[in-house]
Amino acid sequence: MAKIPGSPPPDLPELVRAEDRLSFVYVERAVIHREHNAVTATDERGTIHIPAASLGALLLGPGTTVSHQAMVVLAECGSTVVWVGERGVRYYAHGRSLARSSRLLEAQARAFANQSSRLRVARAMYCMRFPDEDVRTFTMQQLRGREGARVRQVYRQEARRTGVKWDRRDYDPDEFEASDAINMALSAAHTCLYGIVHAVIVALGCSPGLGFVHTGHIRSFVYDIADLYKAEVSIPAAFNVVAAGPVDIAAETRHAVRDAVFDGSILKQCTRDLHTLLLPDDRDDEMSELNVVRLWDGAERSVAAGVDYG
C-alpha cells in the first residue's frame, strides 16, 4: 500500500486534554511557521516557539501570515486557530476541533431541538450563576431579569472597588475607540474570554452556533458559556486595567485576561461545565471514543461501521 503523503498525526497519548492546555496566545503582524512539533511566530523582534500540543487557541490578528505546515501541526494537535480583527475585538473564522467523537455534539443537538430540554439547559446555566437560589421553575423572562440585575450589580461593585467611573455598558461594535475607556476595556476583555470559550467548545466537538439562551448567531453557544465567567474573569480584568491608567487599553486588557487565566482553571471549569450541561449523567472525559465511527440503525440504535452488511 502506498504511503499516505503528509505529516502523520500525533498519537493520542501525546495530545494534551483541552482543560489542561494554555488558554490562548494572541499574535499580530508576524509570520507563523512550523519547527518540528511546535509553531513559531516571527516578527522584527525575533522568533518565539509555541508548543502546539498544549495550546488551546491561537488568535491570529491583522498582519499575520500562516504557513501550510503550521496549520497542519496545529490541526493535528487539536489546537484551535481563531482569526480575529484589530486588537482582537472581531471574530472571523476558526479551525478544526480536538474531538473525534460526536458524543457531545449529538447531546447538544438533541437538547437544542427539544423545547423542554433546551429550557432545562438554559435554567442549568442560570443555576450556575445563582448557586444560592432555586431558579429551576423560573421562566426565561424571569431568568433574564435576574441576570440583568446581577450583571448591573457586578459593574457597580467593580466600579466601587477600583474607583473607575461607571455609567452603563455602551459601545459601538463597529467603532472600538468611540466608547469611553471602561467600555473599550470591557469589549477587549470579553473578546478574549469569547476566544478562550470558543476554543474549548470546538475542541470538545460542540457547535458554537447552537445556543440555549442566545440564538440566531453563529457564536450563540459561545456567548452562553462565556456569560458564566464574565463576573469572575473579564469584568474585573477590564476595571483593573482602566484603574491603572493604561497606555494601550486593548493590549493591556488582553494581558490582564491572560494573567487572570494563566493557571488554566478557566479551561478546566469550562470543560466540566460543558459536560455537566450537555451530559449531566455521563462523566466520561472528552478524550474517550475519539475514533469511534458507527452507523445509525434507527431510533437510538447503532451498529459497527466498516462492515459489509450486504
TrEMBL record:
Keyword Ligase assigned: no
Cofactor(s), names only, from the UniProt record: Mg(2+); Mn(2+)
E.C. designation(s): 3.1.-.-
Gene Ontology MF terms in the entry: DNA binding; DNA endonuclease activity; hydrolase activity; metal ion binding
One Gene Ontology term from the biological process aspect of the record: defense response to virus
HAMAP family in UniProt: Cas1 (MF_01470)
Family: Belongs to the CRISPR-associated endonuclease Cas1 family.
Function, in words: CRISPR (clustered regularly interspaced short palindromic repeat), is an adaptive immune system that provides protection against mobile genetic elements (viruses, transposable elements and conjugative plasmids). CRISPR clusters contain spacers, sequences complementary to antecedent mobile elements, and target invading nucleic acids. CRISPR clusters are transcribed and processed into CRISPR RNA (crRNA). Acts as a dsDNA endonuclease. Involved in the integration of spacer DNA into the CRISPR cassette.
Protein name per its UniProtKB record: CRISPR-associated endonuclease Cas1
Source species: Microcella alkalica
